[in-house]
Task: structure prediction
Amino acid sequence: MNRWLPRTYLTLVYLLLYAPIVVLVVFSFNDSRTGYEWGGLSWRWYESLFNNRAMVEAMWNSLWLALSAATVSTVIGALTALALHRYRFRGKKVLNGMLFVVMMSPEIVLAISLLALFLLVGLQLGYVSLLLAHVTFCLPFVVITVMARLSGFDERLPEAARDLGANDFTMTRTVLIPVIMPALLAGWLLGFTLSLDDVVVSTFVSGPRYEILPLRIYSMVRVGLKPEVNALGTLLLVFSLVMLMLSQWILTRSKQ
Amino acid sequence: MIILLPLFVCPCFWKNRSLTLRAGPMKQTLLSLRNLTKQFDGKKVLDSLDLEILDGEFITLLGPSGCGKTTLLRMMAGFEHADAGSITLGGQDLTHTPPENRPLNTVFQNYALFPHMSVFDNVAYGLKMEKRPREEIQQRVKDALTMVQLEDFAKRKPHQLSGGQQQRVAIARAVIKRPKMLLLDEPLSALDYKLRRTMQVELKRLQRELGITFVFVTHDQEEALSMSDRVVVLKDGRIQQLGTPREVYERPANLFTARFVGETNFFPGRVDATNGDDTITVDVFGLKRNFRKPDFAVTRGQELHVLLRPEDIRVLAPEDHDGVAGEVVERNYKGSTLDSVIHLQDGTEVLASEFFDEDDPAFDYSLGEPVRVSWVDGWEWLLPEESADEDAPVEA
Amino acid sequence: MQQPFRTAVLVLVWGWLLFLVLAPNLLVVGASVMTRNPGSFISLPLTLDAYRQLLNPLYLDVFLHSLYMAGMTTLVCLLIGYPFAWALSKLPKQHQVLLIFLLIVPFWTNSLVRTYALKLILATNGLLNNALMAIGLIDEPMQLLYTEAAVIIGLVYLLLPFMILPLYSVFDDLKEDLLRASHDLGAGRLSTFIHVIVPLTLPGILAGVMLVLLPAMGLFFVPDILGGSRNLLVGNVIKNQFLDARNWPFGAAASIVLTVTMAFLMFAHRLSKRRIGEDST
Result:
């Protein structure tokens, strides 16, 4: 098989994948009321967006939720992976099983089960319920990513650290964490992505107090055209990219 | 006639009656490689290589990593295409034939057994592709497994087998198709020492029993010497020497081969005089020794290398005038031999390996002990000074 | 001493999973056999009414249609994703990382927003129709929105990366030597594909199917935006029952059906891995 056929195919699929994104970005600058025709460049939809306080708030809420969910799930996920890899305890299979179930479950199943739980314990739906839910569905992905990294690593390093007198916590902190750092970052990124993208779970477990994007714009996109949505999507994308580059920059600096 | 030609060309045939030709009938050429060239990213992996592989022989491609031996093997199998050159098998041009149509089979370095198939299905795969009838496949697979002593393992999966067992399955799988030639890509490198030794004997026996030509690739020169009928020493895509194990060990064609195959001492020598009786006098470390005249031209004053294997070195008492003065810096008891490293006065390091003399219970050295180093004239091998560029391949 | 840290970690992990995974799922199972109660959502007595409601032809129809659309989505994702993953695994390693990253980036605009963008493209006077008419391929705009095809396109668009990633993983693990061995033993390209490549990538295929088929039945917002009321998914039913109609037992029962399907697929996946000897338990 010649070399160009696979590459052409890959390019084609990527073009199709990014076409709607490109449409989103380009049309966010479209100076036209009807939304389908091109009316020239304009910032009007961004202005309209910023004037809509509820929308802006929803956007920040979504971002903040994603950031916190990613972080919490990375911490818990890393600890879980470490425990599975290093400690011996009963019920490992059950633990693994539960993680697998969460990962494979369709979001809607997850959503209603968590809603049932929250209502049963009387937890008010808001930031906390959202955070708990998001962390839960991000968790397995972090665990898998970290475990993959752990399985390929030299067992003698932690032993050497223990031999030199470090207790379990110190050893974990000074030896294991640096080793799994790339996996932690990958897991964090994955968690952030999943949280920001989520619609199904959020629909079920969010309340009026902490509005996030999907619900805010749901009614808008159902009915007609709201070009502010284009601006919104573009902004989210830009924010995420900027944040990623920032974190990369911080990382490379901290390595020196 | 063509078969006998290399023999006439080889000076050894005339000069050295002690060179024993291999016993048995003369072998025909089976595979002919002409002018094979291959480049990867601008680097020449194979450089206009010519090689004739004889029918029924066990020939080893030997060399360090990156010398091109694996590429050459892959090219024979059909997994790599040459940039230039041709491959001919019994008159049939195979250069552009895909691997599935070549009458050759490969045993891979990591065995490459199909993990989702049982041992039986793995071995039967080749016959299945030939669309053989079921009964024939059943019988032949059974025979092949018996041959490698794995009859009871037919239903197991590869991951349930040990490394050595997997390797035998790989061999059975390749051999069952009755190929004209079997290509083995460092098949023993993943095994531990003892198993390796056992498998070396096994493979040799198998080759004799089946009568198939084996082309074996390894970087382990001991392995190459012990198993092969002929050895091809490769470096940077070129053949450095092609000969029997003995020729390659006792008469290396150049410095690289001498260094790569076994340990060697290199002493600098200068030709003092050429004598009428086929000997020359060479000045080595101030000693004047008479050596047999080498195959290359020598003139007075010429500098050359005197090669002596550690087992050719004699370590003498310090009073002996017949040797070069030095000091023992290392001493290793190896069980059957006593290996030592001696530093001469000018800093030259000499490796010596001596068998224990049962009559001399006190035979041993202490570190720092002064000694004299010598050898038996006639046991040395001479090589000319080498310039920086590549030397021409030598067929012994 | 190592004990306190270890204990703390185990308590945290077990606690989280028991509280937020096991308990909720048990609640759903429990809810599915309870009676509907407008006031407190569910109440005793225990009954199988909810499951009987599932068999109502109206819902059965929705379920089968939803299964069909999810199935088509999975098939399309497989057809597009399989060669994609294969091609991706053959590229130099650094390129692979970048390209996988590019697969994930679109997820940073929320799914809802992306589905909306698709609406812009597929609408009657939308981009696709306008472009095709401009080139002259069609004379009249095609009806793409509010069709079954639109829902499938939407689902494929959102779920394709979930098919690609597990497939890429198995292709990455596929050793080149195995393909060489197959050719060496006399198999041509097609035979090698059937006898070696497909069986070895089967776990990836099944994982991809799992990650696409079930969500494809649950992403209710896609029909809401692109498909109109005639192309509902099981997810729409569940959502309606839970959030609008407050018929929890019924919603729970529908959800259990999805869970059972998932368990079935997980089992099949396990078997396919065991066959290759990759069973890690």
Chain B has ten helices and 21 strands. The CA atoms of residues 77 and 99 of chain B lie 6 Å apart. The two ends of chain B are 18 Å apart (CA to CA). The mean pLDDT of chain B is 86.
